[in-house]
Amino acid sequence: xxxxxxxxxxxxxxxxxxxxxxxERMLPNYRMFSEAADFGDFNVLRNQLNLIWxxxxxxxxxxxxxxxxxxxxxxIPDVEDFDFFGVYPALDTCMALGSLLQAIQxxxxxxxxxVSTLSTSSVxxxxxxxxxxxxxxxxxxxxxxxxxxxxxxxxxxVASQQELFDxxxxxxxxxxxxxxxxxxxxxxxxxNLGIEV
Length: 197
Description:
By secondary structure, this protein is an all-alpha fold. The protein has helices at 12-37, 42-58, 65-74, 87-106, 109-134, 145-149, 152-170, 175-186.
């Protein structure tokens, strides 16, 4: 189930707001990893996402992209250094935030669309690991694409992205739309992997 959203139908503001809302759902994954691994700094990511929301709400906020991307670079985990699953969604979160900052700077829809792809990929990889561990006793594990596509967590990811996309598409470029998107993103109190916020 590849999620193809008509990004070109959104204004740059709407694309940014949609992507920021997706990141709200990914951020808890980084926080959990950071606390468990005693690595990185969740506040760097939180502050950067807050800056993006402020820019969306107020319009005049200047962001020094080079500085922010450098700060982000310092807290990106290397998967070689950690031997537990949490490093992967943490890395996806950093890559998604980096894509969003880069896309705002370059005014590039393709880079912006990476946020949606990374969120879905994060869920997909988590489900591959989860389903494999459930079948550990079997000699040969074959996980079908349909097992992942039909899993409730993937269905929820797709539905959540669609709901946020529709809300961004209908929303005006103002603070109310930002608040609505944040509220929708966090309404279940869970990250995109089902981790409690």
